[in-house]
Amino acid sequence: MVRAQSGRSNVYNASARAKARKASLIDQTRMRQLVQQGTDSIGASIGEMGYRAEMDLYASRMSGADAVEAALFHNLDNDLAEVLRFCQGKLKSIVAIYVERFDYEKAKTVLRAVNGGASDEMIESQILPSENPRNATWLTIVKNTEGLDEAVEAMAGTPWGQTLAKLDAESTLEVMENALDMQYFADALRAVKDKEGSPQLLKYLRMEIDHRNVINEFRSIRMGMTSEQRQAMIIPGGKIDAATMKQACVTETDEELIDVLRRSSSFDDNGFDEARADSERLGSLDPYAELLSHQRHAVLRRFSHLSPVSAFPIIHYIEKKALEVRNLRLLVRGKAVGLPKEVLEAHMDY
Asked: Which helix (H) or strand (E) holds 254?
């Protein structure tokens, strides 16, 4: 965790470096070319597109989609560390607020693995490979704990550990994950609201909160959760007002939920009718998730262009890099199970 950096920011240099890195990401044309490739050649092609060092690292003991996926996450970790290294001063503190979400995601990964009964060997070899030095702390927690209670205790001293320690001993994994989401956004909002914070990043974080809450509401309808359970999942701090979200928690269908959300001027309903139709046809929440993802990327892109010398070109790059890793992971896993090209392309988010 990196916070409260002192000294001068190097905004000009860091913004330029982030833009250069973004230009080197896999573009839509090359990604579609990867979709057309077979399972045997796709790994080699991904390696040549910036992932060769990590691919070679895992090639000695892993193969196929497992090796590619491990390489992708390792590369992302390396990239995040490099971005933080070339940021200085206040800029580094602002970027670190965004990067910290990846630590929270790893905490969730550990909890899921422990809760699912995965062996230490499986976690070390597949879920959090030991070849990645940034997994060392997490692997130590896994190896020295048995069950969720001990895992939570082992995380003491970290922001996520302090959050989990406040929960009841009988809390489910779902409750723990939701508490981590709430804590991350609470910390992030507090950090960007201080006198040296970023008003634009605050606006973006509040949009993310709204999107997380909306997706959770769609999911809770399918799970048949009670209104009380749904209300407890609402992450505070979004732009959609609390009264609207409270009404959303008692809706019973997607159509009702969208109608309630439309009562808030902070809800952008463009594309939701089409997404609802696609969701019903596919039996999946993916159309909603992709629509909201496109909305966030559009805002990041606009902020990046409006504030070319700021934290936003760097945050925009990080988001695009994470999206590239997500697309490549989807691609190799989809190829491995024989999904048609049309299905893969439909689920790619550019």
From this structure: helix 254-261
pLDDT band at 3 (very low <50, low <70, confident <90, very high): low
pLDDT tens per residue, range 233-261:
999 999 999 999 999 999 999 999 999 99
pLDDT tens digits for range 198-236? 788 899 999 999 999 999 999 999 999 999 999 999 999
The C-alpha atoms of residue 167 and residue 165 are separated, in whole angstroms, by 6
Q: How far is CA 332 from the centre of its chain?
A: 19
Residues 6+ apart with CB under 8 A from 280: 254
The amino acid sitting at 90 is K
Residue 205 sits at the vertex; the CA angle it makes with 173 and 22, to the nearest 5 degrees, is 100
CATH number for the region 199-309 comes to 1.20.1690
Q: Which structure tokens are listed for 161? A: 């550990």
Say which amino acid occupies 269: D
Crossing angle of helices 272-282 and 254-261, rounded to 10°: 160
Helical H segments across 86-172, by residue range: 89-115, 120-122, 136-143, 148-154, 159-165
CA distance 211 to 251: 17
Please tell me the distance from the alpha carbon of residue 61 to that of residue 58, in angstroms, as a whole number: 6
If pLDDT is split at 50, 70 and 90, which confidence band does 118 have? confident
